[in-house]
Amino acid sequence: MRLSCLSVLLFSTLLSAEQPLSTPVQVVTSAAEPIPETRSAETTQTSLPETDEASNSLNAPLPALATEPLVLPISKPELPMLPAADYDVMLLGGGMPICSSLAPAHCAEEASFSALAKTQLRYALDPSQLQLLAAAPIFSSERQVLQQQVVALLSLLQTTFNGEFTATELTTLWRALPAQPESDALSGEALWQALSEREHKAILDYLEVATFSADRQYRLTEQADLANSLDQQAVALYQQLVSLATAKATSKGRSQAKVLLITAAASDPFASVDLYLDIFRQAGAEVAWLPLNAALTQALSSKNCAALADAFAEQHARYRREQVYADRFAYQQQLCQKGENELIKHIQQADALFFSDGDVTLLTAALRQADGTATAALNAILAALQQNSLLLAASNNAAAALSGGQLFATAPIPMLSSGDSYHALQYGAKAAAAPWQGCQKEQRCPNNSSERQLTYATDGGLGLFPLGIVDTQFAERGRQARLLVLQQASQSRFGFGIDENTALLVDLGQWSEAKAQLTVVGSGDVTLSVLQPESTPNVLLASHYLLSAGDTMLWQTTEPQLFPANDKMALTQLAEPLRSKSPIFTRSHFREFSRSLCRSNLISASISEPPYTIKLTKQDNCYQAETGKLSYRQLFRIINPD
């Protein structure tokens, strides 16, 4: 089922120009009868590589529900009497760029940092480190020759260049080195291209050096400048997190929130600690780092804190962090020696836990034993969550790792671990370990799958978010299809897609009644995908709710209720042309198409990307604020006639 030449056909049932959506309109379609075309939008053509596969006939009747009435009421839904929200979970969709000493591109000109700010990562071609690299267990046996060539190349550079380098300087020297006529070694550029991303990181780990002040008394740290961050929406989200944590602190008789930072999802969980500590301090919180990660969990389980560095290399495939971040590693060792009760004490004293972005597998390995059972730390987090004493916040992939119903005694909810929309449509979803980026170069991808294969964990992740599957960077990466494919494969009714610079706030106070109150903050949208009973692998079907800043939703197992923000009004002047780009599940193309339908005077629209047909149908009024923010519900179909 590969894509062939793209032909886009936009067709719909049109309300007459004299009849705005303020009048209820009913449109009925069926599988046996095409939608009547009282007016068609313009057809656009976009070329993709040709294949020999037959195109789907765009004139054939579209599969539809046998009964699919469409009524657009003008009355705005009234918000029911809900208790004042006391949020328990904050799911952040990623993005959120902050001005820092290592990221000046996100800074205004007025940004400034102290003399102890870390402005660059530094590397050195130390002979002793090159010897360690030569024997390091980084490369598979089939790729040992590449390891030897890397060491030879770096040794050659070391004879000519001394001192320390930035990453850019080092890679420039490396890639500019020509092939050596007296050996079979590759040129620097060819060798660079032959390595996988994992191998690149490991090599740089062996060359990285700690950065210190001029008197070598202090390790330089990455510093933030919230006031001079170009993206103030990202700053506002961190401030919102601290504000919600402060509400928890106030209920305990304290005025300042205690935020506990967990970087366990990161491949290098030491690298971002300084930045996040500075962000939360500037946002007004008392903040501490909890050095919990997969390596610490393994060391605690085996009662072997002396092997912590080896466990880290095994679990995270990163090296020499104990030398580059000696102070952070020493703190982790001290906590390991104090035992698991010390972790629990820190969790119980916190008002908020913040899980930074990274790899869902690494985060679950930090809080679950090898057999999948919850660690004492995970049980402590759940207990605090159930007691309403803790705000649980997670960013990007860490947010996806919170899904699963085990700890809330609900049916299993899978955890999405990798993949993109088109691979999901072509190859389906696999309950398997996620392939790592670069595994194809190493010819070591699990189950010989693609790096972009949609994979998931059947039993979910940490089990702390029991409402549905979580996906992030949603609209920006066109992930609508991958979420729906996973919902169908796992028969999971609810899926949440969170855009960048956006957060979903969740109040689980009514969980005993199978209800939850949701609110959206930030610059993007949150999508709730509700799998319909009629959905099949060939006709994926879901209600597609879109919420933006200020919107509230009452989640319930029957059917969720969407309540647009007070400043949003039902759209009645609908005259914008329909817009579409291809491929539809690339970048933000689907979001633009869906919003365009909302603002048009069309009821339905379809796009053909053979062999698929993607169809959207309005189910309710669209509501819009003066800022342009939208709220709506559409019926979303992906049809595969094969």
Proportion in β-strands: 15-25%
Uncertain stretches: 1-71
C-alpha geometry: globular
| Overall average pLDDT | 88
How would you classify the quaternary structure? single chain
Structure class? alpha+beta
> What is the percent of helical residues?
25-40%
Give an overview of the whole structure.
The chain has 642 residues and is of the alpha+beta class. It has 19 helices and 30 strands. The strands form seven sheets. A nine-stranded mixed sheet has the order 12-11-13-14-7-20-21-24-25, sandwiched between helices. Strands 18, 19, 22, 23, 26, 27, 28, 29 and 30 form a nine-stranded mixed sheet that branches. The chain has a three-stranded antiparallel sheet with strand order 9-8-10. The longest helix has 20 residues. The N terminus is likely disordered.
Summarize this entry quickly.
By secondary structure, the chain is of the alpha+beta class.
Which features does this protein show?
642 residues, alpha+beta, nine-stranded mixed β-sheet, 19% strand
Which SSEs are present, and which pair or pack?
Blueprint: E1 7-8, E2 11-12, E3 26-27, E4 39-40, E5 44-45, E6 70-71, E7 89-92, E8 122-124, H1 127-135, H2 144-160, E9 164-165, H3 167-176, H4 188-194, H5 197-207, E10 208-209, H6 232-251, E11 258-262, H7 273-282, E12 286-289, H8 294-302, H9 308-316, H10 321-324, H11 326-338, H12 340-349, E13 352-355, H13 360-367, H14 376-386, E14 391-395, H15 397-401, E15 415-418, H16 421-427, E16 429-430, H17 439-442, E17 454-457, E18 469-472, H18 480-490, E19 494-498, E20 502-507, E21 515-522, E22 526-531, E23 539-547, E24 552-556, E25 561-563, E26 569-570, H19 589-599, E27 604-609, E28 612-618, E29 623-624, E30 630-639
Parallel strand pairs: 7-14, 11-12, 11-13, 13-14, 16-17, 18-19
Antiparallel strand pairs: 1-5, 2-4, 3-6, 7-20, 8-9, 8-10, 15-17, 19-22, 20-21, 21-24, 22-23, 23-30, 24-25, 26-29, 27-28, 28-30, 29-30
Helix pairs in contact: 1-2, 3-4, 8-9, 8-13, 12-14, 16-18
